[in-house]
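During the second half of the funding period, the structural biology subgroup turned its attention to how the target accommodates small molecules. The most pressing case was zinc ion, which had performed well in the primary screen but for which no bound structure existed. We therefore specified the complex as follows and requested a full 3D prediction, including the ligand pose.
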Amino acid sequence: MDRSLIPLSYLQPTETQIRGQVTNTFLSKQLVAAGICLTDEHLLQGCFPNAEFPVIPGHEGAGIVESIGEGVTSVKPGEKVIPLCHPQCGECSFCLNPESNYCLKSHFTEPQNLLPDKTTRFTCKGKQIHHFLWVSTFAEYTVVPEYAVAKIDPAAPLDKVCLLGCGFSTGYGAAINTAKVKPGSTCAIFGLGGVGLSVVMGCKAAGASRIIAVDINKDKFAKAKQLGATDCINPRDCQKPIQEVLTEMTGQGVDYSFEAIGLKETMIAALASCNMNTGICVMIGELDAGSEISLDPMLLLTGRAWKGILVGGWKTRDCMPKLVSSYLEKKFNSDLLITHTLPFAKVNEGFELLRAGKSIRSVLLF
Ligand code: APR
Ligand code: ZN
Ligand code: ZN
């Protein structure tokens, strides 16, 4: 696809252009990297709400600012940044609420198929291509609003910290910020992809004493154990529904459960697996657009809490630089999630690996 390179004059105020170098070896240190997340697969399958085709997917990435529009003050050309698939405008009522990381400029409340000025900066053979979540990280160059980019430490390796743009932060934050996992508690994580394994890391970091990892692909169990899971269960090996198995294993159900798959059945199973009185279930996986879930209200009546979260509850512009600093201080090792590093030309191979359950995270290098 011909991803047009954007001349500086085309930038609008408060926009930022980010670049990676494709083949120029003189600039080989200035890589841009992008991770492949299941949300990109949902997009390709046409299941992502409000997306429009043709589109440049990708929402997990890291890059270097190429140029800035008039009025941009928070980043300069040459600085390392992470584009934010979930922006933080800093001005809306949700951004001003210290308890919330939802920004009213997010894709649920504002279309992000075009930039805020309703233009697209991508073309192919004269035809306009849509943006995805304003970031479109599967491109050598992209243009993003200033409030959808966070400056990060210049020492950060872009081919590693790109995961912090979505997958790692989403899972880790679900445990730390949303569930607020307490030391000594019991947790169950449904789905051991990049997101679910990051939940495992978050539960471990929060001091959970029992971390039960659930997946239908037993090949994921070794990594889950390496990251802190104490038990691994394949629901297909169980004679009873997984919620009953987990309840029996823990007495009254787990303290915290997390759904990191994006299926109705596992969302209900995760909810039913947590303690009926004080359990907290965090929904992280995304359902197809237009999906509806029906559930027995008794699951909630006795006191369980069912919560949803986007990007792990982090206020993204404020927190992304801090997460990168924590990475550099080795407070967590998100590198363990990277199973494949591929040149961008192998993007389709990256999706095949994801579909076949053979990868956790594939990182594409430009
Ligand atoms: N029961 C248990 N595990 C399942 C089931 C099931 N019925 N179906 C799929 N899985 C497992 C897969 O085997 C895989 O290991 O769920 C995992 C999903 O991992 P990935 O495909 O790598 O997805 P990931 O990128 O981690 O995203 C997970 O979070 O942000 C959202 O949109 C994202 O909904 C997606 C979810
Ligand atoms: Zn906002
Ligand atoms: Zn994602």
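Two results from this model are relevant to the next phase. The radius of gyration is 20 Å. DSSP finds eleven helices and 16 strands in the chain.
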